[in-house]
Amino acid sequence: MSPEYLEHLANWIDPHGLWRKSPLDELTVEQSQQRDAGIALRRHAAHVRNLNSLLGTEYSLLITPLAHNVTRTTSWPTPERSAS
């Protein structure tokens, strides 16, 4: 799926932009699920966008988990044995 389509889905699932609200705001269970789904789709769109930007290069995308729901992404030269 394209990053644009994933962002479209994120806007569809979270039409009120709950992902922009403070995490301390009170939300219903349904609103919380909408926010979480929108955030997950936007995060995945960003990863896909990063991957697409590396197509045709000698770099890979390294996604490192730092904490629950927190990652660090960086591009790194692809090892010779992985390139094909």
SS strand fraction = 15-25%
The rounded Rg comes to: 16 Å
Discrete helix count: 2
Q: Please tally the β strands and state the result.
A: 2
Number of domains: 1
Strand order of the largest sheet: 1-2
Q: Classify the secondary structure makeup into a structural class.
A: alpha+beta
Name the helicity range: 40-55%
Order of helices and strands: HHEE
Low-pLDDT parts are none
Largest sheet: 2 strands, antiparallel
pLDDT averaged over residues: 91
Shape: elongated
What gap, in angstroms, lies between the N and C termini?
23 Å
What is this entry, summarized?
This protein is α+β, with helices and mostly antiparallel strands. The protein has two helices and two strands.
Q: What does this entry look like structurally?
A:
It contains 2 helices and 2 strands. The protein has 84 residues and is of the alpha+beta class. It has a two-stranded antiparallel ribbon. It is elongated, with a radius of gyration of 16 Å.
Task: Identify the notable features of this structure and list them briefly.
84 residues, alpha+beta, two-stranded antiparallel sheet, 2 helices, 20% strand
Write the layout of secondary structure elements.
Blueprint: H1 3-13, H2 29-54, E1 59-67, E2 70-77
Antiparallel strand pairs: 1-2
